[in-house]
From TrEMBL:
Entry protein name: DNA replication complex GINS protein PSF3
InterPro entries the record matches: GINS_A, GINS_bundle-like_dom_sf, GINS_Psf3, GINS_Psf3_sf, PSF3_N
Organism (species): Laodelphax striatellus
Domain DNA replication complex GINS protein PSF3 N-terminal positions: 12-64
Principal location class: nucleus
Keywords linked to the UniProt accession: DNA replication, Nucleus
Coiled coil: none
Self-association and partners: Component of the GINS complex.
One record GO biological process: mitotic DNA replication initiation
Subcellular location(s) per record: Nucleus
Classification via CDD domains: GINS_A_psf3, GINS_B_Psf3
Pfam families: PSF3_N, Sld5
Cited function: Required for correct functioning of the GINS complex, a complex that plays an essential role in the initiation of DNA replication, and progression of DNA replication forks. GINS complex is a core component of CDC45-MCM-GINS (CMG) helicase, the molecular machine that unwinds template DNA during replication, and around which the replisome is built.
Amino acid sequence: MLPWRNCKKHYFSIEEILASQEKVPCTFRRTANQLGILDPSAEDGIIQKGAVVDIPLWLAKTLARPNHGLVKMQLPKIYKDVYRDSLVADASVVDLYKMSKFFYSFGKQLSDYDEANSKELRNLLTETFKNRFRQLMAWVQNMGVEEVITEKLDTLERKLLIDGRNAQNRLNNWLSNRVETIQAADMVMNHSKKRKFSDLEV
């Protein structure tokens, strides 16, 4: 199992920052004044108690803290129900990028704040990654993979694909260089010539 619990967030990680912009459905526990900007349908800038509004994760985490308790975060649909069943059935054919550009990073951040679904969510992330990793490695070795296929990869998988292909290219170059004729260094060649001339003089 992947150590999601030990995956620490990096303050300057662009991926982490962008993942925190993904929206989470939140139920308002009480009426909120002057927060209508979060919900275009709110009248007079007031969000009524019980309203469900999609809020960026970074803001939802703040509003859901015990000292605020203004909202209750819900699990986004991409991590439950029909989507979860599709991932369990055959994760390798699912278009993760369409579901979320930051499927793994977004899910990891959610699991840190949603204790009720934390274990189940981390298991889903782990199994999804494991089931797609073998196919990802096959694409690493097949440089002719069509862009249509790689478009289904989320940001993390795309980075792994690029890094993997770069590593494969370096390996191929190294292997091809090994079969070439080994050329003696100039210093060795010059030393050999000097020895030959010395032998002739003797």
